Structures are given as C-alpha cells and as structure tokens.
Hints:
Radius of gyration: 41 Å
Strand order of the largest sheet: 5-4-3-8-7-6
Largest sheet: 6 strands, antiparallel
Shape: flat
Helix content: 40-55%
Number of strands: 12
Amino acid sequence: MASINETNQIRSFSEEMLPQKTPKKIFGVRFAAFIEILVFLTIALLFDKYFGEGNRFLSINPHPFTILIVLISVQYGTLEGLFATALSTLCLYFNNIPEQAAQQSLFEYQYYLVKMPLLWFISAFVLGELRMRFEFENERLAQELSDAKRRENVVAEEFNLLKASKENLEAYLVGETNTAIKTYEAIQGIESLSTAQIMIKLVEIIDSAIRAKKFSVYILGEYGFEIVDSKGWDKKDSFLLRISNEHSIFKEVAGNQRILSIINEEDEKYLQKEGVLAVPLIDPKTLKVFGMIKIEEMDFIDLNMLTIEAIKNLSLLISMAYANAKKYKNILSKSLFSSSNVLYSYSFFKILTEIFWELKTKKGIDTAILSFSNQKGKRIPLENIEMGESAFKSIVEKAFDTPVYIFSGDKTERNYHILAPGISLNEAHIKAEIIEEHLLHDNYLKHFQFENSCYRI
C-alpha cells in the first residue's frame, strides 16, 4: 500500500500532469495580442486617412479604439489591455494634439486631453483583472481536477493490490454474495402483471441474483416442460428445448416437486447431463408446478447450499408473482374496461353484442360491427398497449359523427372492435375504409397492418 507521505505528495505531483504550454511573448505581451493590436490600429488609421476626416476619429464618440481595448482586455488580460491602451493613446495624439479652444480654460483643455486615455486605462485594468481572475479560477479548477485524477489512480492501484492480496478470501466470499437481500432486490424487477412477461423477466432476475454462466427457464406445456428463454447457451450446447413428460427431470421436478442438484449423487442420474440444478416453480394457490428454473453451468465454488437456498426463495417469490398475475388476468377478463382503461374490454363487447341483438329482434334497430384485425399477427407490447388503444380511439372518434362503442381486441390483444348503433352496413364499410386509411398513416399503429371487416347484428 502507498504510504501516507506518498498520498500527501499528490498535490505536488499534479503540477507535472498539467500541460505546460507557454505562449510566445514580446515585451511581456503575448505575440497574438501584439499582432492583433498592430493590425487593428493600422487598419483604423488607414481608414481614417483615406475615408475619414483625418483627425483620427476625435469627433466620433465612442472612439473606435475603445473596441480594441475592450476586446484585448477581455481576451488576454490586464497587461495586454494596458499595452493596447498605450498604443491607442500614442496613435491618437502623436502629431495630432488638438488645439485649445478659445472658450476653454487650461483645466478644461487638459481634462479634454486626458479624459479618453484615462477611461481606456480604467476599462483595460478592470476588464483585464476580471479576465485574470477568470484564468486563475480555471487554473485552480484544473489543479483540483488533476489532483482528483491522481487520487483516483492511487485508489485504483491500492484497490488492485488489495484485491490481489485477498484473492483466496474473495473466492470464499463469492458464495456469500447471493443473500436474501439480493434476491429481494432482484425480484423487485417484476412490475408487470402479465404471466408471459413474468416468465420472460425471470431470466433477467436470475442473471442478477445467481452467478450462473448458463441457465434456462421452462414453462409447463401439454407435452412437458417447454423452454421460454435461456442465457449463456452457445451453438455447441445440445440442451433440450422441450423436456417431455417421460424424462426423469420432468418426473422428479413436476411429479415429485423436488429440487435436483448435482451435489446429490442420486440427483445426478436424474439430471442426465442436462444441468447442475433444477428447481420447480410451484403455484402457491393450486400447489401445482407451472414451470422450472434449470442451471446448466456455474462455477463449482458457487454451487453450494446458499445458492440452492437463494434460488429456492427466488422461485417461491416468482411463483407468488405468477399466481397474482393469473388472478389479475381472471379479474381483468370480467372487467368493463381493458387493461389500459382506455377502451372497453372484450368481455363487455360480448355482453353488449347480445343486448344489441335483443334490440334488433324486438325494436328492429340495426347495429353495425366493425372489426380490425392485425394481419402481421404481432402482439402490441404490454408497455405500448395504452398508446396503441389511445391512438385507435382518437382515429375512430374523428371518423364517426354519432356515438360508438370502441373495444379492445380478444385475448390475443391483436384486434379492435367497434359497435355502431343505427349505422347501415354500407355506411359501416365506408367508415371502416376511412379508419383503415388513418391507421396506415399513424406513426405507431401503421407497423401492425390492420385489415377491416364489417357485419350487421
């Protein structure tokens, strides 16, 4: 480790890190400023001689030389500003001192001669000092930045030394990292109430909570476990994408609801080189397995009881979230509105269709149904459902002059429906074409290629 004396020498070392670039100077004035002053005065005097009154702008107020002094002082500082003042005064009065007017007293005449150079001098001094203060502040900040970088390098070096000296201890502590707190932080990533999204999100959660190189998530299907997603697999791997209900993993995990670990010699034959750990996902309400987490590869030091307990707790939390999502989905299927609360739900569409059918039978009131199906078969992402439904609702309301009922699609969330009371079938076809045209030009919905169909109740 670096000594305290080495740490205290950081500030002196920082000077070596600052770029040492000294500008060229003439009589203590920066060369660039010297040239700019001479060029400006030369051009100004030539302009006065050939196009002006020839009195070196004495009749102009403010005097053009003031511009030079202000710019030089602001850009370069006090010394250059005073140098510009001296040269400007020399150019103004050299062989050009105005005569004393008859009505002027000696004091008034002297004040007239001194006033402008004095104002130039004060301006150059004040503006130049402000510039110098600004440069000093920049240098101070650069010094602090350099010191901070030096400290950062020292800390980084010390960290690497500490890391190297405690390598054996770190190897032991790797297995201690996956605590209940980290599992809880990982599970907070589940914000959606969609069962499908929970299963997809599970890969990200496992990746953050478990130090596994290769793992996968399966869901229970008709013929066994079917893969949802995986992490770390490469082309050489031949892990099963579907684990049939005849496989030993399925029988033990789904049938006996056991955790299989290669740590247990008996479990190794059940895993059949398909992984080192398999954990069931059990619905806490029905106590039935609905999925599985399978670890295919991880460091031996990480495969311990702490890891198994952590992934067991993780599967329990996932199962609870999955059960809540199913409950929410069932409630939503009976709701008046869709999940985004923008359109009416599909279940309400079926109820209202029956009501309008009765009105048709008893009162003879015609009602047209306009349906828009997504021809690409793409499901609108969950996070964009509200945006899609809002856009569709806005388009429909502009197309119809009379009140209509707008519904979200069926359970696939790929379709939209409209109930239009008192609208004939021909009129419905015209409105549908108008809506479809607007859908093709909507910035978001145009990607889904909706096709309309109309029929009458």
